[in-house]
Amino acid sequence: MEQVSTDDLLAWIRLFARLVAENRDALTELDAAIGDADHGANMHRGTTAALAAVDGAAPASAGALVKKVGMTLVSTVGGASGPLYGTFFLRVGTALGEEASVAPADVAAALRAGLEGVVTRGRAEAGDKTMVDALAPAVAACEEALAAGRPWAEALAAAADAAAAGRDATTPMVARKGRASYLGERSAGHQDPGATSAALLVAAAAQTLAGGGAGG
Amino acid sequence: MKKLINDPADVVPEALAGIEAAHPDLRVDHANRVVHRADLPRPGKVGLVSGGGSGHEPLHGGFVGLGMLDAACAGEVFTSPVPDQVLAATKLADSGAGVLHVVKNYTGDVMNFEMAAELAESETGSRVVAVVTDDDVAVQDSTWTAGRRGVGVTVLLEKIAGAAAEQGRSLDEVAEVARRVDANGRSMGVALTSCTVPAVGHPTFELGEGEMELGVGIHGEPGRERVPLAPARDIAAMLVEPVLADLPFGRGDRVLCFVNGLGGTPLLELYVLYNEVHRILTGSGLDVARSLVGPYITSLDMAGSSVTLLRVDDELLSLWDAPVRTPALRWGV
């Protein structure tokens, strides 16, 4: 049975940080259209710090590594994204537990716990034009694929596809949470920056958590 | 971008160092970016803590001192401070009588202060009560949004609740006064230009020479409506009418009228606007009991203004008039 190791999780964080760095200006431009033009800079600062906090330090367990990422994001990102991404990783880490490697079904359950943490912290629902619109379909697609008996790599790929589709679906939405909501109808026609960074997070997971240390 | 800075990355810490150098009765915890009174803790006094993104100066650090805030934490420009910072400010301000968090209603600020309050209560047993300001009438459909934004009322609330805390009132009493201020205050703003975030380097949005943005907040987020630029007397009406209609304010009400500059509008123009606003208010039968005119809650270099009306009673007026000694507001001492 394949397992997700702490090395895989570290590769996930490393690739997420790299994707955020590469998309820093694009995230900021999206945020400038409907928010306050800081999402790229904030996520870049946070993911850089989170990677530095876990890279090279031998983590005691899968859960400890991911929780450390969450605590670092809470302390470094600020805005709404700090508590939301921080809560996501803290809940995922808690659910992953104290083993060095975790079965795919347990990783999927941990991602579900992370999503629920984000929903609780942000009080956002599907369709509010937030990161939930990328994360929620991704977690559901991953669970469905595993339930259908498909391989872990395919479940992760399905999650990435669902996150990208969810991200794209935010464009016509009218925002009901966060600063974009103050625009009312004028928020429609713009892709949500939070859903965009969340899709990067899932894309990074798809390339790393299936093992093989890809994406370093 | 033309800005009087060294490096965009150093704007916030260097401004905090400047506040500390300029105001000997304040201190700065540089690691946590907290401006605080030098004489903390003050036994028996409820602590007042606020904070938020930078770029709104003098809010909040310029309101730290006697009769107002005990500590204020500064986030990155337009970005909420993180829970560690709010926690550090809360610990500094807590003398054992509890701490009031004054939070502007933005998704990030509310979540970060909430996490900090949970941490403070679990780490030190501090009692923390949060009051969230949400006075911006430009946000109409608050059921379908993150709720109204906290803007000008925040300044008035920090002054009035600060005076109540200075009198030795309990945490619950100070919180009650604070909530009363938020409930009786309404604001509306207009931008004539965008603002430029130092780390971004270009204006957040584009406004044509003949346009203005009505219903803006304080973060360069676009407002509700783009309309043709108008004379001050018309702008005054566009700002005051939705404010008056919202509470609603009625004939004979006593009000504090706060005409705020958003950072790039000179005081000369603010007084032109104040004159028009005052005329509309007295024409509507309101008694303008107090006024405040100047840039107190800004949006970097944005040209524009906001009008805040606060309905006051004898108690709120006497708390407003009570002594205050901060970098930005100073009277009676």
What does this structure look like?
Chain A is mainly alpha-helical and 216 residues long. Chain A has one domain (4-208): DhaL domain (Serine Threonine Protein Phosphatase 5, Tetratricopeptide repeat, Alpha Horseshoe). Chain A has helices at 6-22, 24-34, 39-54, 62-76, 81-96, 104-122, 132-147, 152-169, 193-208; strands spanning 4-5, 101-102. In chain A, strands 1-2 form a two-stranded antiparallel sheet. The longest helix of chain A is centred in the middle third of the chain and has 19 residues, at 104-122. Chain A is globular and about 45 Å long. The mean pLDDT of chain A is 93. By secondary structure, chain B is an alpha/beta fold. In chain B, helix 7 links the parallel strand 10 (254-261) and strand 11. Chains A and B meet through helix 2, helix 4 and helix 5 of A and strand 4 and helix 3 of B.
List the helices and strands and how they pair.
The complex is a heterodimer of chains A (216) and B (333).
Chain A (H helix, E strand, L loop, with lengths): L3 E2 H17 L1 H11 L4 H16 L7 H15 L4 H16 L4 E2 L1 H19 L9 H16 L4 H18 L23 H16 L8
Antiparallel strand pairs in A: 1-2
Helix pairs in contact in A: 1-2, 1-3, 1-4, 1-9, 2-3, 2-9, 3-4, 4-5, 5-6, 6-7, 7-8, 7-9, 8-9
Chain B lengths: L10 H12 L3 E4 L4 E4 L9 E8 L16 E7 L5 H11 L5 E6 L2 H17 L4 E6 L19 H14 L4 H13 L1 E7 L19 E4 L10 E4 L3 H15 L7 E8 L5 H17 L3 E8 L9 E8 L2 H8 L2 E2 L4 E2 L2
Parallel strand pairs in B: 3-4, 3-5, 5-6, 10-11
Antiparallel strand pairs in B: 1-2, 2-4, 7-8, 7-12, 8-9, 10-12, 13-14
Helix pairs in contact in B: 2-3, 4-5, 4-8, 6-7
